[in-house]
Specification:
Strand content: over 45%
Largest sheet: 6 strands, antiparallel
Distance between the termini: 98 Å
Radius of gyration: 45 Å
Structural class: mainly beta
Number of strands: 39
């Protein structure tokens, strides 16, 4: 028993370990690997070179909100280093170094920088303590940065390397220093967070024959490489799909599976159910306006799903005629009276009584407009089934515009006329032939006087002393074109010497009105020779 339990626990642990490994693998999915060698760079001719690599793994990263991780290794490959210098005897000498182990020592003085975020790559040492390459793992990289990852190389200065190649007692000054080096770049891009998967808003879609759906309603993200590039239906006779337009057409009763694939190569599936078409009665009786047509499907007579097969017949076609437009029953009131419509759907039947009535027209009889203004007249109170067929301005002083449903009319007084006012008539014709005449009076707007500070007057009533304070009593009269809420006053006067200052009033002075105010000051004598002036008002 103990052996069985131990075996079970061991098996369970192995399963858990494998599950964790799979989770880690998916969280660090390898997206792309890049390996290439750069051109040869020459130090001091192309000082501190910057080279870039495209780590883009797809053509269009628009809408990609994933985060990526880049593991990069850069290995310098030297051809030679040429040094020109003067020795202590002022003799110019040159040395060319090609020994690989010697050249490796330059790496210890070299810097390679991840230019996008200006971070140094780490040096990697061999068993001899020499730097062989530079590496770094860069996290939280946006998709947009995968297009242009840049690295910058900082070559060492001459004084940094002269001790490596030359004896210190032999060199007075290095004049020339030339590197000849290229770089081997190896980079791996991992998916750090996010997903390339197709994300569905719905796993099931249902409807009726001839219904249309679009993938934008079903697939969450359709940007960049998340856009669906391939789509197939398990039964295109039930529902077909066009991958380029994303249009799904429901064709016959049944069920099928649609599979979609994005530009990342990830797929997802959803189920489409096409229900049987139906027609049912919503109302047992309905009214129809004389000499008008009515769609029973849109006016609450019947409820239709899909493309049901049915027949409909009027008991009195001289009063109410009926026809079909597609799957919708269309009736016409031909004369006052009533008739019964009988619908036959397979072995089932239902009926609707239709009463033909006179039209009820409710529309304004007269309108007053100021030139430049508009007014919209609604026909929503008119009988159901009535709509405005056309409208005409008799004197041509108005522009007329019908709403898309022809149940409202907008009048705009934008035409010129002489005098201060003019009259016009608008004749409105409805679809049943009824007409309505609207009288319109148009007046020109009154010209408004511009605001002027000179229209705001101030009058000093008296200067006096009260309760140990000097007081000024004055009246402001607002003859301007607007109501005032703020007034600023400049005053001058004399005590022992000239006194001046500003008074700020925050009070309402209506247009055409006067108000009296008292301002108090910390003086023990009243002011003499007072003058007051309004400097601003609003």
């Amino acid at each position: 028993m103990k052996k069985k339990l131990l075996s079970f626990l061991t098996f369970f642990c192995i399963l858990m370990f494998l599950s964790i490994c799979r989770l880690d693998a998916s969280a660090s999915e390898v997206v792309k690997k890049v390996s290439y060698t750069t051109q040869t760079y020459y130090g001091y001719e192309e000082s501190d070179p910057i080279f870039s690599t495209s780590l883009k793994f797809a053509n269009n990263l628009t809408g990609d909100t994933n985060k990526y991780k880049i593991a990069v290794t850069i290995t310098p490959i030297y051809d030679k280093v040429k040094i020109g210098y003067f020795n202590w005897d002022d003799e110019y000498k040159t040395v060319t170094v090609t020994d690989s182990q010697k050249l490796k020592q330059i790496n210890g003085k070299l810097n390679i920088i991840y230019f996008n975020k200006y971070e140094d790559l780490n040096r990697v040492y061999d068993n001899n303590g020499l730097v062989t390459c530079f590496s770094k793992t860069i996290s939280s990289v946006n998709a947009s940065d995968l297009d242009n990852v840049k690295f910058m190389v900082e070559f060492p200065y001459s004084e940094d390397i002269e001790g490596i190649f030359l004896a210190q007692n032999d060199v007075e000054e290095i004049i020339d220093l030339e590197y000849s080096v290229k770089f081997q770049v190896n980079a791996t891009v991992y998916l750090e967070s996010g997903s390339f998967n197709v994300k569905l808003n719905k796993s099931n879609v249902s409807g009726y024959v001839n219904y249309i759906y679009y993938l934008t309603d079903i697939v969450a993200n359709q940007k960049g490489n998340y856009k669906i590039v391939k789509a197939t239906s398990s039964d295109s006779s039930v529902a077909s799909i066009n991958a380029s337009t994303g249009r799904i057409t429901l064709k016959k009763t049944g069920k099928c599976t649609i599979t979609v694939t994005n530009a990342y190569g990830r797929s997802a599936s959803f189920t489409v159910t096409v229900n049987p078409s139906t027609i049912s009665r919503l109302s047992s009786s309905i009214s129809c306006v004389l000499k008008t047509e009515m769609n029973l499907a849109s006016q609450g007579g019947v409820l239709i799903f899909g493309t049901p097969k049915y027949t409909v017949k009027s008991s009195k076609s001289s009063i109410v005629s009926v026809r079909k437009s597609g799957t919708d029953p269309i009736i016409r009131g031909k004369k006052i009276g009533s008739a019964v419509l009988t619908f036959t759907v397979g072995s089932k039947k239902f009926s609707i009584r239709v009463k033909v009535v006179k039209a009820k027209i409710v529309l304004a009889s007269s309108v007053n407009l100021t030139k430049g203004d508009s007014r919209t007249l609604s026909a929503n109170e008119c009988s159901c089934g009535l709509y405005i067929k056309r409208a005409t301005s008799i004197n041509g002083l108005l522009s007329l515009k019908l709403s898309p449903n022809a149940r409202s009319l907008t009048l705009t007084a934008n035409k010129s006329f002489s005098g201060t006012s003019a009259s016009d008539k608008v004749v409105v014709t409805f679809n049943n032939g009824s007409k309505k005449t609207i009288k319109v009076k148009i007046t020109k707007p009154k010209t408004t006087k511009k605001f002027s500070l000179s229209d705001v007057k101030i009058k000093l009533n008296r200067s006096y002393w009260s309760n140990s304070k000097s007081c000024l009593k004055y009246t402001i009269t607002n003859k301007s074109s607007k109501n005032l809420t703020k007034v600023k006053i400049y005053y001058t006067g004399e005590l022992n010497s000239e006194v001046s200052g500003y008074i700020n009033l925050k009070t309402s002075i209506p247009r055409g009105k006067s108000k009296t105010f008292i301002s108090r000051f910390n003086w023990f004598d009243p002011l003499d020779n007072v003058k007051m002036k309004i400097v601003s008002a609003s």
